[in-house]
Predict the 3D structure of the following.
Amino acid sequence: MAEDDPEGASEMLARLGVPGKAFVVGVTGPPGTGKSTLVDRLIGSYRSLGLRVGVVAVDPSSPFTGGALLGDRIRMTKHADDMGVFIRSMASRGWTGGLSRATSQAIRLMDAAGFDIVILETVGIGQSDIEVVGVSHVVVVVIMPGLGDGVQASKAGLMEAGDFYVVNKADIEGADAMVVNLLSLFRGRPRSPPVLKVSALSGDGVETLRSAIDVARSKFASGDPALRLKGIRGMIVETARGAVLAKLASVSESKAGKLAEEVMAGRLSVEAAAERLAR
Amino acid sequence: MAEDDPEGASEMLARLGVPGKAFVVGVTGPPGTGKSTLVDRLIGSYRSLGLRVGVVAVDPSSPFTGGALLGDRIRMTKHADDMGVFIRSMASRGWTGGLSRATSQAIRLMDAAGFDIVILETVGIGQSDIEVVGVSHVVVVVIMPGLGDGVQASKAGLMEAGDFYVVNKADIEGADAMVVNLLSLFRGRPRSPPVLKVSALSGDGVETLRSAIDVARSKFASGDPALRLKGIRGMIVETARGAVLAKLASVSESKAGKLAEEVMAGRLSVEAAAERLAR
């Protein structure tokens, strides 16, 4: 419903009352860093504590990579028979603003459905992808050693978004150097976020990560208003962003061509036309 | 000025009259596909025709990758002494909407400064990154053989954005398979975009690409109104998007916290709060 009928989901959500029972963990980072495998491990870890886990995975839905993508999802389907786990991949295909809204709605629907933990997995590359994790109570940024071009693509925004930094694939050469590298980036901040070495593949370090996250989770569970406010604020802003971008797209569809003609005829500047469109 | 004083640039641009002498080529694609090397080759090719070339390179500005990034830029600085070439890297660091506006402005300033060709290079991963190339007259999407996770990150948007598809690093195994793969994706469309094998490193195929682009360029040069309208329309929409997102960010800063408190107190739904914020 969040994907196909956002208006309907909206109405339903308005009746569901104040959100905020589920603890939302955002997991983001450049492609290829093993986010899905890590999410899979976290699901297992939370399940062993008896907690119900929902996952919203924002899928880049490339037409090229049926293989790789399917691989990730198949890995996750080992939880397919577990009624305490619900995994939903949401495609980002061709949406303008829609993703922000649908993600925020899906998380709130899972929240209302009684999941204790909701994990939001996104590829943290574009600014907008990073902003999506703003709906989370804590954000885990996943990177890996020796990331060349992949990290080149990661925006500085990633370095501000994280509450926890995971150097995944810790068995690869360069893991320690990457940890040092990260810590030096955080030097000078009032409080450096924890940097943890993990091997999602073998499971090493996953429990340590989960315990680190648990500090925030127990704060949240005991009603910490700052964390709850943060999550709700993120949902409001993301939903608004979605609405605004969708509106701009629909207005552009009907008005931008006409405005462009005015500009071409010299009757309007691009700036003035943009201002009209924006207004 | 476009980066640091968008209002000032706006005023100046409003006085510069109708944009649209420069032919704008967007070059986008996942990280690591060799876009910068290809852009470097295109600069050389256009220069050999005596055309002046401006480049706007949207840099992900990762704090990790001084090295890789600098490498790209150094490669381009072989044109540093050439007065017919102007290259500007624009950081996407922490901007919300600002990038759309600054990119559109920078291109128009280069246009006004008399460049014949403006190349806009972006990492085409996030939806917003892809939308930035909407200001271009033609869009070249660059991919490479055997792209696993890198392509996994590429959104389907890429498959709709391109007028030309380049399989770069054509000497790598799998190039032909990738071409076939792409063509099969385009089957069923009224008109399949050209798919070209290129080795930006050796230069093979670059002239063929440039000639293919030249068909659109000569249409544009002969005053084709559809192409000019397309470019101007893109600039209007991008500038408007920038303005709208910047406004939302500033309004969120001052209002979202208060609205979140209302939601937490049960006096407002997330949807209603988002609608207020959006309005």
Summary: Strands of chain A lie at 23-29, 53-59, 85-91, 117-123, 138-143, 164-167, 195-197. Residues 61-72, 148-156 of chain A have pLDDT under 50 and may be disordered.
